[in-house]
Amino acid sequence: MTIQPSHDVSEVILVTGATGNVGRHVVQHLLAAGVPVRATSRRPESVNLPGGVEVVGADLTRPETLPTALAGVHKVFLYAEPRGIDGFVGAARAAGVKHVVLLSSSSVVGAGAETNPIARLHLDVERPLEASGIPWTFIRPGAFATNSLMWVHSIRSDGVVRTPYPEAHSTPIHEEDLAEVAVQALLAPGHENTSYVLGGPESLTQRRQVELIAEAIGRPVRLEVITPARAREEMSRFMPPMGVDTLLRYQALSDGVPQPVQATARDITGRPARTFARWARDHASDFR
Q1: Domain spanning 146-171+201-260+274-287, CATH class
Q2: Which of 17, 173, 197, 288 could form a disulfide with 79 if both were Cys (CB 3.0 to 4.6 A apart)?
Q3: pTM of the predicted model, to two decimals?
């Protein structure tokens, strides 16, 4: 990824959620660009990040922890945590932060956003940032390719994926594409006060995603159709009810319906978004 930076590479960028699927790639790309990186963690002593990253203790839900984390910071990569967002905005203003790039969700521009709990969560972060006076960029992905990690246990233990909607379509996006877009927004000019809806380069059914994972790990994976009630029960073991209901509703609506492909990631990074087949190869060890 080539960036023509407007950002002074001597100025610190704060990365929240730095050990997450997207945040860790943001850290890696910023380091590769020669940018000083500070990362926050509730438990900084247990964080495993590349050398050269300054790790500080902070919690977005506890605004009193933020002034120290934001001291001397020029820009911020922020994950969506509505609890304490007003405290974050106040601390960022006081610290003189010049730009915040938020990992949001495409659900905020979907039908029924005001009653969609996932959309509401992200809107409750977007709106205070818009009103803050701090330049912002909202990255709004649809389906994360990493959503398929919810199949890890059943593939490893039984060689099976159980789903009520095998023909449900999505355009899953690789987490590294999201990170590259975020880093472009942080380092290159022209992304302030702009939002980007992002997706992967192809509309795939769940059935096809399972086939691609099977190809990546070199062994068959069986697909078993189950009822929505059973899916809700199984998904509730590792996902909050809000996420379960929203995901099942989306799958029902997209059953047999190809989804539009967004070109935004390619437009920003200058190259095509990674395919799900590439994601499956990158994560093959997770499923073996």
Answers
A1: alpha beta
A2: 17
A3: 0.93
